[in-house]
Design a protein that fits this description.
alpha+beta; outer membrane lipoprotein receptor (LolB), chain A; 20% helix
């Protein structure tokens, strides 16, 4: 189970296996530009939060856990058992702890698409190539990719966007899901539930320590 969750998590969070490029899109319509501006406004106001997450891998395997975000630069995916997996961004590095293998691997945050959402200032229109932006029911969907490093991958973000006036829309948005599709067309989906804003989060949540032998099996 842990190995399956790890592969799905790396696909969903690191997005390093994606090949190919996204074709240039026509200029945004006025409505699309307004929606993009609202998304940027929402993300830039997003500070600290906690949510429960459910990850569905390409083979249908479901993993669950707790998600913490502290912008800029920090997040934590704490997987529930039986998965032995922990993913932490500490502001500089993204660390992946595999309890089954008793290993910790680290990647510069700037080398992953997470930098697009963890930066101090977010402007998806400038920092990414939009492959699509549209509404579907009460959902606003943005598909994006870093044009300077297409190998990072492609991800679609889903925002809840209840009907509201233009001035209210940014307040109504909420990030609920993202879906990653790899080079083989396999999708990994992460849903956020029970989302709650926090005034403070313990800084220790975003510190990854190298494990002592056998320590991870007993955490």
């Amino acid at each position: 189970m842990a190995g399956t969750a790890l592969r799905a998590a790396l696909g969903a969070v690191l997005l390093l296996a994606m090949a190919g490029t996204v074709q240039a899109q026509p200029p945004l319509t006025a409505e699309q530009q307004r929606d993009l501006d609202r998304v940027n406004s929402y993300l830039n106001r997003l500070d600290k939060l906690h949510a429960e997450f459910e990850q569905t891998g390409p083979d249908g395997t479901v993993s669950r856990g707790d998600f913490y975000l502290s912008r800029p630069g920090r997040l934590r995916f704490d997987y529930a058992r039986p998965d032995e997996l922990l993913i932490i961004a500490d502001g500089l590095w993204l660390a992946v702890q595999d309890g089954e293998l008793n290993t910790v691997d680290r990647f510069p945050i700037k080398s992953t698409p997470l930098s697009l959402l963890l930066d101090a200032r977010i402007d998806l229109g400038k920092s990414t190539q939009l492959a699509g932006i549209h509404r579907e029911g009460d959902s606003l969907q943005l598909t994006l990719q870093d044009p300077d490093a297409p190998e990072k991958g492609q991800v679609t973000l889903f925002f809840a966007a209840a009907n509201a006036g233009m001035a209210e829309m940014a307040e109504k948005l909420e990030l609920k899901r993202w879906v990653v599709v790899d080079a083989q067309g396999l999708a990994t989906q992460i849903d956020l539930n029970e989302i709650e804003r926090r005034d403070t989060l313990d800084p220790k949540l975003f510190i990854m320590r190298d494990p002592a032998p056998d320590a991870l099996r007993n955490r």
